[in-house]
Amino acid sequence: MNRNLREFFEPRGLVTEGFPRFDLILLGMGPDGHTESLFPNSPALLETTRWVVANWVEKFKTERVTMTFPALNSAVEVIFFVAGAEKAAVLAQVLDGTPG
Fold this sequence. Notes:
This protein is α+β, with helices and mostly antiparallel strands.
């Protein structure tokens, strides 16, 4: 998948050289605070060179394909849509920068 993305998008990130510069990325948030299948304590959180990885998610006993933080951070704009009362407490922690 990395190769397909690199063929289509010119790597010219604003934050990190060599990453794509997407104009807009829309994200949601799970009840545990995860986004983009980047779950707490998952290996993909440590990835710094690839755009996309297959990330093992222990909670679901499966791999999920996800963009990495450096690729997401290179976007011009990132917008989060978060809805549901069950996410209110973890969203407050995220916005305050306090670990859950």
